[in-house]
Design brief:
The chain is of the alpha/beta class and 354 residues long. It has 2 domains: 143 residues, Nucleotidyltransferase, domain 5 (2-Layer Sandwich), CATH 3.30.420.40; 166 residues, Nucleotidyltransferase, domain 5 (2-Layer Sandwich). It is built from 11 helices and 10 strands. Strand 4, helix 2 and strand 5 form a beta-alpha-beta unit. The longest helix has 26 residues. The radius of gyration is 20 Å and the shape is globular. The protein binds 5'-O-[(R)-(carboxyoxy)(hydroxy)phosphoryl]adenosine (KG4) and zinc ion (ZN).
C-alpha cells in the first residue's frame, strides 16, 4: 500500500487494563487507559470481574482515544488488537470489539502478540507528554538486541533479530518477577498491585538490611519461588519476635526485597550477554516501571559499554500504544488477520523472519 501515513487504532484488553491508542505510523496520537480498581479488594486480578469491566470500559475508552487523536474513524487504515497471551474472557472483549469495528469500517484487522508488543514498544516515537519521564531514552535499539521482559505474567530474556523474530533464551521456571513483587506486597498487607508500592517504600529503605535467598538456577532461566519462601519465613520470624517490627522496618524490607529481585534479573542479563553479545539491551513489561530496576539496567549497560533502552513509563505497563506499534510493523508486511480469527490465551512469540 503506497501511503505515507498509516493510522491504526489499537486495543489492549489482555488482563486488567482496558486501553486504546491511535498511532500515525510509529507516533502516538492518543493513548487512553481505564485501569480496574475492582481487583484491589481481592489482592489480585479476578478474571470474571476483569472481563465484565472491559465490557463497560471498552466503548468509552476507544471513543476517548479517537476524540483525543483528532482524527475520525473513517481515517483509520487498520485495527490492531491483542490476540494473546492473556486471560481468555478479557481477550475476547477486545477481540470482538476490534473485529466488529474493522468489519463495519471495511478495514484490515491485525492480531498482535502482547509480549511482542511489550518488546516493540521501544520503537514508538511517542508523544511529548509520555516521553517526559525519560526524554533521552527514546532512540530505538538496533538489531540484534537482547530484551528482558518483566511483567506480571512473564519473566524472560528474548533475543530479537527482527520485528518478527523473537527467541526466548531464558525464562522463569515458576513465578514471574511481577508476581513476586505482588505476592510479597500481599504478605506485607500492601495494596494490589504491589510492585509500585514496594518501589515507593524501597526509596527510603536500606537495600542490605535483610539478606534474602539467592536462587542457583542453571543457564539463563529464572526462579523466584525460593526467594518468596525465604521472604515469607523472615517476615514470620520478625512478626513472632515483635509484631511492630514489620511496620517499623517496612522500607528496609521493601528495599531488600527489591534489591534481591533486581540482582537476580541483572545477573542473568549479564550472563546472557556473554552468550549473546550485542550493543543494545532493552527492558520491557510492567516491572520495568520499577525505578531501581531502571537504574540498575542502565548501570549494567554503562559498565559493559553498551546501550540500554528503557521505554517511557506510559509504555512499560500494559498499554495499547505498544500493540499499535507492533500492528504497524505487521501492517507494513501485509500481515492481517481474517475476521474469523480467534483469541489465543497461550500465544507464543513468533520465531519466523521476513
Ligand atoms: O506488563 P504488566 O502491566 O501486566 C502484565 O502483562 O502482566 O505488568 C504488571 C506487573 C504487576 O506485577 C505490577 O506489580 C508490576 O508490573 N509493576 C511494578 C511496578 N509497576 C508495575 N513492579 C515493580 N515496580 C514498579 N514500579
Ligand atoms: Zn503486559
Amino acid at each position: 500500500m503506497n501511503k505515507d501515513t498509516i493510522h491504526i487504532l489499537a486495543i489492549e484488553s489482555s488482563c486488567d487494563d482496558t486501553s486504546a491508542a491511535v498511532l500515525a505510523n510509529d507516533r502516538v496520537l492518543a493513548l487512553v487507559n481505564a485501569s480496574q480498581a475492582v481487583h484491589r479488594e481481592f489482592g489480585g486480578v479476578v478474571p470474571e470481574l476483569a472481563s465484565r469491566s472491559h465490557q463497560k470500559s471498552i466503548m468509552p475508552t476507544v471513543q476517548a482515544a479517537i476524540e483525543q487523536s483528532g482524527i475520525s474513524l473513517t481515517t483509520l487504515d487498520a485495527i490492531a488488537f491483542t490476540r494473546g497471551p492473556g486471560l481468555l474472557g478479557s481477550l475476547l472483549v477486545g477481540t470482538h470489539f476490534a473485529k466488529s469495528l474493522a468489519w463495519s469500517l471495511g478495514i484490515p484487522l491485525i492480531g498482535v502478540n502482547h509480549m511482542e508488543g511489550h518488546i516493540l514498544a521501544h520503537f514508538i516515537r511517542g508523544d511529548a507528554s509520555a516521553h517526559q519521564s525519560s526524554p533521552n531514552l527514546t532512540e530505538p535499539p538496533s538489531y540484534p538486541f537482547l530484551n528482558l521482559t518483566v511483567s506480571g505474567g512473564h519473566t524472560q530474556l528474548v533475543w530479537v533479530t527482527s520485528p518478527f523474530s523473537f527467541e526466548v533464551v531464558g525464562e522463569t521456571l515458576d513465578d514471574s518477577a511481577g508476581e513476586t513483587f505482588d505476592k510479597v506486597a500481599k504478605l506485607l498487607n500492601l495494596p494490589y498491585p504491589g510492585g509500585p508500592e514496594i518501589d515507593r517504600l524501597a526509596k527510603t529503605g536500606n537495600p542490605h538490611a535483610f539478606e534474602f535467598a539467592r536462587p542457583q538456577i542453571p543457564d539463563l532461566n529464572y526462579s523466584f519461588s525460593g526467594l518468596k519462601t525465604s521472604i515469607r519465613y523472615t517476615l514470620e520470624t520478625l512478626e513472632r519476635e515483635d509484631p511492630e517490627r514489620l511496620r517499623r522496618e517496612l522500607p528496609d524490607i521493601c528495599a531488600s526485597v527489591q534489591n534481591r529481585i533486581i540482582e537476580i534479573l541483572t545477573d542473568k542479563t549479564n550472563l546472557a550477554l556473554e552468550r549473546y553479545p550485542t550493543e543494545h539491551i532493552t527492558l520491557s513489561g510492567g516491572v520495568s516501571a520499577n525505578s531501581g530496576l531502571r537504574s540498575a539496567f542502565l548501570n549494567l549497560a554503562a559498565a559493559r559499554g553498551i546501550r540500554a533502552h528503557v521505554p517511557p513509563m506510559a509504555y512499560c505497563t500494559d498499554n495499547a500504544a505498544m500493540i499499535g506499534m507492533a500492528g504497524y510493523f505487521q501492517f507494513r508486511e501485509g500481515l492481517f488477520d481474517p475476521l474469523h480469527t480467534t483469541v489465543d490465551a497461550r500465544m507464543s512469540l513468533q520465531s519466523g523472519s521476513f
